[in-house]
Amino acid sequence: MWVEGQHPLDPIFPNTMNPETNNPPEKTVRDFVKLTLGKTRFLLPDREVLSIEPMLNIDLTHEDNDDFNFITMNDKKISVYAFDEDLQLVSAKDDRHQFCVFLDDGQDRIGILCDDAGNVTLDDIKLHELPDCMLSTDTAIKNIAVSNNNLYCVSNITNLLQLIKKSGLD
Amino acid sequence: MQDTAQMSEIACKAWLLPTGSIHVAIGEFELVHIIAGWQRYIPVPRSPVWCHHVFLWQGCLLPLFDLENYINSAQGKVETSYSNTSDIVGIIAYENQRGEIQYGGLKLNAPPVIRVVSDDKMCDYPLSYPGWSKIALSCFKDPDIGPVPILDIQRIFCAKSQATATTTNSAEKQP
User: B 32-91 residues with CB below 8 A of A?
Assistant: First the structure.
């Protein structure tokens, strides 16, 4: 069953490091959706996630071009992408994927195939910016979340779409 | 002659760091700690092959920098995997462009040793890598090792990668 989620109305990460005051981020509790791609775990902001669907519920259509996959909903095509654990785009035909996470930021809507996905509430969470020497022009990871000494890569639909665009598949 | 004699007596201490097959040096106060290499690293997708993991140290998020991998990548040598193994990690302090003190991890394969360095030991960079002048401040001749570049820590840790999209984990991502 398709469950419409809440669209984002306010900043996704309101307490990321403030560059003007250089104040450390406040500790807080945050809801995320955790995606597993191979050995890598990603967090996506809960408010951008429309739904998490088992692949059994998804009728994925492949076009002649293997790189473009979509589902049709209400006569609208929603692009669906698959990444490996290093966020390289891979074929969505691979049947190892168990879930499709649908993301919507109010402007764009896409599906991301993954091995596992689920809601997670992290307490005492701090968001760190990626160190300068790790930033590259094509990364979709801008933040690392630290919660109770666990580290998670954090992304969002905007960064994922930029990555897809750079790969020439938008 | 007296001035020259006094100059040669001006010396300071530096840490000699074994990083893979390469030896580099940093200032005495730039190395703040050494820790065991078995930290809990997490990979950051699409980050450079020479700096692909982060870890926590005293509540700070630190990049793990592999200097040998960096130099190999700069010379076009293909790396087959992102390595997150290290015998020892040196915790390095540096000042970023905003003047703030930051920390980074440098992979080491043996404990650092202290050396006394003076101007009269200055020499040319090792010929094995032509890009030393981009990442080092100077070079001195160690009696046991030979030429040892003095690393420009700020340049190493503050420089944003020029990595571009690649389809493989390879050295196409060049510094």
Answer: 40, 42-48, 51-52, 54-56, 61-63, 65
Measured distance CA(B113)–CA(B14) in Å, rounded: 8
Whether B92 is covered by a domain: the verdict is yes
Q: Could you tell me if residue B101 is inside a domain? A: yes
**Between chain A and chain B, how many beta carbons pairs sit less than 8 Å apart?**
100
Which residues does A contribute to its contact with B (CB < 8 Å)?
22, 39-40, 85-88, 128, 130-141, 144, 146, 149, 151-153, 163, 166-167
First-to-last C-alpha distance (Å) of chain B: 44
What Å distances lie between residue A63 and A60, A66, A111, A161, A165, CA to CA? 10, 6, 16, 20, 18
Residue B25 lies in a domain: yes
The continuous run of DSSP H or E covering A164 comes out as helix A157-166
| Chain B residues in contact with A86 (beta carbon < 8 A) | 43, 45-46, 169
Dist. CA B78–CA B76, nearest whole Å: 6
Instruction: Give φ, ψ of B13 to 5 degrees.
Output: -95, 145
ipTM of the complex: 0.78
pLDDT digit string (tens) for A28-68? 678 899 999 988 889 999 999 999 999 888 888 877 665 67
The domains of chain A are located at: 44-166
Residue B169 covered by a domain? no
Tens of pLDDT, residue by residue over A124-160, are 889 999 998 998 777 889 899 999 888 999 999 999 9
Q: Between β-strands A109-114 and A76-83, what pairing exists: parallel, antiparallel or unpaired?
A: parallel
Domain that holds residue B117: 10-158
